[in-house]
Amino acid sequence: MYHCAQLSSELDKQGSAVIPGLLTAEECLNLSSLYERAHSLRARPGPAAEGLSLEEKYYFDPALPEPVRTLREYLYEQLAPIANRWKTAMGHAGVYPAHLQAWLDQCRRAGQTRSLSALSRHGEGDYEALHRNANGTLVFPLQAVILLSEPKRDFTGGELVMTEQRPRMQSRPIVLSLRQGDAAVIAVHDRPFQGACGIYRVTLKHGVSRVRSGRRYALDLLFHDAP
């Protein structure tokens, strides 16, 4: 993984950061194949009801399969110090535990047991509307989106996009350019921003632009569960 200081700096500046080559092409192919073996995953009602156009999304059971479980635990441990710094900056009480299982135990005690981590497949014409994954009272402020397909070879279009809304300003668009195996770490809902007069809160949404051709597979890793 690239240097944590660089990751922290980029997240502070724009609420997102790209980790290049987190997974190999072979690891991406193996994860994509999990989608086709849908019997090992759990399908939930399509996002169309939520205003999304998506071919299908499969949500993992709480006991994630390998290597997804190990990858999620590893990323959480890298991101927890950043999340705690953000929480302090925005004046929120409490701390995120150093290890994922302790945090998930807190979610469980709060009645949040439904996994939000999922594999997605976008086909031609599919897109994902701007949204936030801030489900439940306990929310980890960062998530990871790992692209499992290679742009221009496997699909065209399908860029990961974000918007950031700062007080009294128009929304700022952000397009994250990913290659196969790259991971985008993005803010789930809000983040602290250092302005001229101090720190204030900015809100963010993310989505996927329309896929023009081919199929786009991605792994979405959330670090909190939903009610």
Number of helices: 4
Radius of gyration: 17 Å
Mean pLDDT: 89
Unreliably modeled segments? 45-51
Content of β-strand: 25-35%
Number of distinct beta strands: 14
> Which range best describes the helical content: under 10%, 10-25%, 25-40%, 40-55%, 55-70% or over 70%?
10-25%
State the shape.
globular
Task: Describe this protein's structure.
The chain has 227 residues and is of the alpha+beta class. The protein is 24% helix and 31% strand. The protein has four helices and 14 strands. It has helices at 4-14, 25-36, 68-89, 100-109, and strands at residues 16-19, 42-43, 56-59, 118-122, 128-131, 142-147, 155-157, 160-165, 172-176, 183-187, 190-195, 198-208, 211-214, 216-221. The strands form three sheets. A seven-stranded antiparallel beta sheet has the order 1-10-6-14-4-3-2. Strands 5, 8, 9, 11 and 12 form a five-stranded antiparallel beta sheet that branches. Strand 11 (190-195) and strand 12 (198-208) form a beta hairpin. The longest helix has 22 residues, at 68-89. It is globular. The two termini are 32 Å apart. 34% of the residues are buried. Residues 45-51 have low confidence and may be disordered.
Question: In summary, what is this structure?
Answer:
By secondary structure, this protein is an alpha+beta fold. The chain is built from four helices and 14 strands.
List the topology elements:
Layout: H1 4-14, E1 16-19, H2 25-36, E2 42-43, E3 56-59, H3 68-89, H4 100-109, E4 118-122, E5 128-131, E6 142-147, E7 155-157, E8 160-165, E9 172-176, E10 183-187, E11 190-195, E12 198-208, E13 211-214, E14 216-221
Antiparallel strand pairs: 1-10, 2-3, 3-4, 4-14, 5-12, 6-10, 6-14, 7-13, 8-9, 8-12, 11-12
